[in-house]
Each structure stands twice: as C-alpha cells, then as structure tokens.
Amino acid sequence: xxxEAKKLFRFLRTKPVPTNTNEILALExxxxxxxxxxxxYIRSSLYLLIGGIGILQLKDFESIKWLGYVALGVCxxxxxxxIIRYMLLMRRLYKWNRILFVDTIPEPVxxxxxxxxSRVEVxxx
Length: 125
Fold this sequence. Notes:
By secondary structure, this protein is an all-alpha fold. It has helices spanning 2-8, 21-57, 65-100, 118-124. Helix 2 runs antiparallel to helix 3.
C-alpha cells in the first residue's frame, strides 16, 4: 500500500507522502478541472470571435451587421469572465493547499552542530 501511495505522489512534489491523501488528490483534480474550464472559455470566445468576423465580412447581409459587433463584444466579455473565474479559484485552491500541507508527516530535520567557541572552553577551566 505504501508503494502505491508513493507512485501516486511522485508528481506532486510532496515528500514524505502526506496522511491526508484523499484531500490532496481532490485538490489536484479540482486544479485540472479549473484548467479545462478556462480552456473551454477560451475556445468559446474564439468561436464567437470567428463568427463575429464572419458576419461582418458578409456583403449581402448588411442588415445583420450589428450581430457581428454583438458577437465581438460578447467574445471579449466571455474571455474576461473565464480568466477572472480561473484566477479566483486558483487563489482559493492555493489557500486550501497551504492548509492541507500543514498536516503532512514531517521529515526528520537534522540540526547543524555549532562549532564550540574556544574562548568559552578557556573560561570554563
């Protein structure tokens, strides 16, 4: 079981393997879902951009030119909303990440031995 946990956490850069494995893996899944959502916002805004430019290029349909301008405006708004939501969730996930990694199993820390001062030894004699 311990080897399986080590395999799961080799990409997370956490050493040693934390005790709250489920919560940390849930955070990683949420980060990936957040990135997918941002990419879908970008894809949708690009579709709106292409559609708006396409409508503006039509010569026969001058009466619906306003629809092209609306699509271009919605494209910018859509992209802004996607980026703002991505940034807000990343900040929130960063805070949760800090909370969860406090509960990890601490590594043994070796303290460096300080060199003894020769003057202290002389005074003691």
